[in-house]
Design goal:
homodimer, alpha+beta, Uridine Diphospho-n-acetylenolpyruvylglucosamine Reductase, domain 2, Uridine Diphospho-n-acetylenolpyruvylglucosamine Reductase, domain 3, Alpha-Beta Plaits, 4 domains, seven-stranded antiparallel beta sheet, 36% helix
Chain lengths: 460, 460
Amino acid sequence: MKEEFKQYFIKILGKENAHFDQTHKIAYSYDATKKHYLPDGVLFPRNEEDISDILKFCNDRGIIVVPRGAGTGMSGGSLAVNGGLILAFEKHMNKILEIDLDNLVAVVQPGVINMHLQKEVAKYGLFYPPDPASMEHSSLGGNVSENAGGMRATKYGITKDYVLALRAVLPNGEIISAGKRTVKDVAGYNLAGILIASEGSLAVFSELTLKLAALPKFKKTAMGIFPNVKSAMNAVFKTLASGVTPASMEFLDNLSICAVETKFNIGLPINAGAILVVEVDGNIEASIDEDLKMIKHYFLEENASEFKIARDEKEAKDIWFARKNCSQSIAMYGKLKLNEDITVPRSKLPDLLEGIAEISKKYGFKIPCFGHAGDGNVHTNIMVEDKNNQEQVKKGYLAVEELFKLTIKLGGTLSGEHGIGISKASFMNLAFSDAEMNLMRNIKKAFDPNNILNPFKMGL
Amino acid sequence: MKEEFKQYFIKILGKENAHFDQTHKIAYSYDATKKHYLPDGVLFPRNEEDISDILKFCNDRGIIVVPRGAGTGMSGGSLAVNGGLILAFEKHMNKILEIDLDNLVAVVQPGVINMHLQKEVAKYGLFYPPDPASMEHSSLGGNVSENAGGMRATKYGITKDYVLALRAVLPNGEIISAGKRTVKDVAGYNLAGILIASEGSLAVFSELTLKLAALPKFKKTAMGIFPNVKSAMNAVFKTLASGVTPASMEFLDNLSICAVETKFNIGLPINAGAILVVEVDGNIEASIDEDLKMIKHYFLEENASEFKIARDEKEAKDIWFARKNCSQSIAMYGKLKLNEDITVPRSKLPDLLEGIAEISKKYGFKIPCFGHAGDGNVHTNIMVEDKNNQEQVKKGYLAVEELFKLTIKLGGTLSGEHGIGISKASFMNLAFSDAEMNLMRNIKKAFDPNNILNPFKMGL
C-alpha cells in the first residue's frame, strides 16, 4: 500500500480508524475457515459517508476492498485473498438505530451482532427469526451478505425473507437505498434481492431494515427414534403436508448418534437409523399440543420406536443436547473434518444419505451427517483420520467433489447456509452453466466495473 | 415487420403460432390499463426452445419482444408500446408440470392461471398463498413478473416469498436456471431475486417452481367499526405486535363506506371513520377463537363501536361484501377513476389518509381509499367527475403526482402490487435517485445489452 494512500485514509478516518501495522493485519486475516490471508490494511468506517469516501478513493485507484462483519464466515467471504483493505464494521457501525413496534421492524447498522438484536427486541416480546448457529457472534451485515439460514428455516424462512430494505454504497461511492419498510414494494428492480447473498461483492451495506416477529408464547420439544432415515423423512413429509409446521425438525444419522453416545453416554439408541428432534411453537398451548399429537401420530405410523415429549425445559435441553453436540462428538472419527452444508429438496434426503454411504465405502471415510430435515440442509462431515497423510487428505477432497456432484444430481445446491466464497469457488462450474456464470459476471460488472469489491470470490 | 422475419417465425413455430394479421394484433394490444398499443405480431411459443430460438433471432436483429401473460396487468407491463412482437404463453405454455407433495412445491409453466393452480393443489389440501385480486384471470408468469401481492400478504407475504426457483431464457437465447427446490440455496447470486418483479425486461420465464402451503382447516371473519382511521390503525398495530397475525386486515374509509351503502343499502354505518374486516385462519378452531378474542380486546380498547364475528359462511360473505364492492361503488363520485396502489409503512397510514384529505380539498376531488391495513397498501381513487373536461383531467393527474410525493415522503413506494410499467414510469425519478436509476439501467444492460426485451418500461 502506497504511503500516500495510507495518509489519505488516516486523514479522513483519523489514525485510530486506519491501521496498516502487522498486528491489525494479522487480526483481520482469518475467518472460521481457519485460512489466513494478510490484508494491506484495516479500516473502521464511522458512518455511511466514510464508506462512500473510502470506496470512491479505492475505485479510482483500483484498490481492493473487502467488507467484513464478525469474521465468523465458513467460506472465506471476508478474507482478503487478493490483498486490499478490510472494511470492518464492528468498531463504529454496530448500532441498533431503531426498533419500530408499529411496523415490527428493526433498523440496524451492518456490524450489529445477531444475538444483540435478539436480546434488544426480546424486551418487546419480539424476535428476529433467522438464527444461524453463529448467531451469538456473527453480524447482521455478514448474515445478509451470506443469506444465513438456521434451525428455524422450515417454519420461518431464512435471512432474505426478513430484509425489507437496505442502504448500501456502490463501489463508485454512490449511496443507494433499496426496498421500503413495507411487505409490498414493486417499484423498480428488486435491488435488495440481488444484494442479499452477494457475499460483499456488489456493494457495501450501510444500514439494514429487518422484519421482526412476535415471540411465540409457548414452545415444546419432542424426539422420535427411527429405524432408518427413509422412515424418519416420511414422517417429516407427512407432518409438513398436514399443515403442522414445526419451528425446527432436526435429524441425526446413526454415526452422529453413536458419536454423541460414545462421548457423553446419555443413553442414546446406538442402533437407531435416525433421530428426529422437533420443536413446535405458538401462542396457544392447546394448539401446539394438538400439533404434537399429530406429529406423534405420523412418527408412530412411520415406525418410530419411541416418541418423547419434553415435560419441562430441562428435558427439552436434554433432547437438544444430542443435536447440539454432534459437531464436536464426531471428532472421534478423524482428525480432519471436511464439512459441507449441501442442501437437497427434502424428498431427496434419503437418496442423498444412501449416496453418501456409497462415497463413504468407496473412499474409506466415515461420513456422519446431521442437520435440518425440514429443509433438506445437511451438514456432511467427511472425516479424514490422519490430517498429515497427504494421500488421505487428497482422497478426502475427491470425496468432497463426488459429494457435490451427487448433490447437484439430486437437484440440490452447493451451499444452503455458508455461501461459496473461496472454499467452494472451484465447484461452481459443477452447479452452474457457462451462461449462468457469465450472467453473474455481467451483474458483478454492472455494480463494480473496476472489480474492486471482494473480487474473484464465488468463482467469478 | 420484414417479410423474411415473419417467414422465419412461421417456419419455426408453424403458421398457427405466428400471427401478423390485424385481428391478432388488436387482440394483443391491450391490458387492464385500457391503453392500446398495436404490436407487430403475436407469437405462441410451444416450449422453452421456441422462446430461445425467437429471442436469439430477435436479439441479433434488434427486434423488440414483449412477454405477455393474461393481459390483466394494471401498469402496462405487457403492452408493446414501442412495437415489436408479443410472446404469449396462454396457448401452449399453460401447464402445471408437477405437484410435489413431499417438498410442497408446484412446477408450472408461465401461462398457468393462478386460480387454476389453486384448484389443482386444493385437491391435496394445499394452496398457493399469493392471491392478487386478478387471480381468477392472471397468469403466474405475470404474477412473478410484477411480484403480485394480495389480501393475504400480512400473514403470508407476496409472490417473491413463494418463488423457489425458475428457468428463464436470456435475450441472447441462452437458457438459465436459478434457485432450487429448497428453502435454502446460497450458491452464487440470487438470480431469481432480481428476475422477480423485473416486469419482463430482463429474461423470459419458461418454468416456475413455487412453494405451496397446507390449507388452514378453519377460517373466521370479523368486522370492527371505528370512529376514525387512527383508532382503526392502532388496533391493527396492537393486534400484530401481540403475535396474532390475521390472514387479512382490510379497511374501508368513510367515503368508501358511504359509497357501498348508497349503492347497496346494507346497513353500513355511514358516520363511521373506518371499518376493518379481519380474517383469521388456522388448523385449530380453539386457537383462532383465541385470536379473535384478542382482536376484539384490542379493537374495543381502540374505541370500536361494534365488533362482529361472522357465525357462518353467509355472515362472513356479508361482511366481505362491503370490502369487495368498494371498487365498483365509488364510481358514484366521478366518471374517471385515477386509481393507484401506493404503499406506506403501516404506521404511516393515518398520516397518508390525512394528507390525502388535504389533496382532496385542494383539488376538489373525492378520494375514497380502501385496502390492506395490515401491510400499508392503499388503493387510492382520485375521482374526476367529468372525464371529458380536459381541465379537470389535468388537475386529476396533478393530484396523482402530489399523492406520489406524499407517499415517498412517508417512506412509501409508488406501487405495492401493480408495478411501474408505463403508467408510473414518469414518477420513477420522484422515488429513485440518479444513482439508483443508473444502477437499474446497468442491470438491464447486463441481461439485455441490445435492449430488445420490453424496453423503456419503468422509466429505464
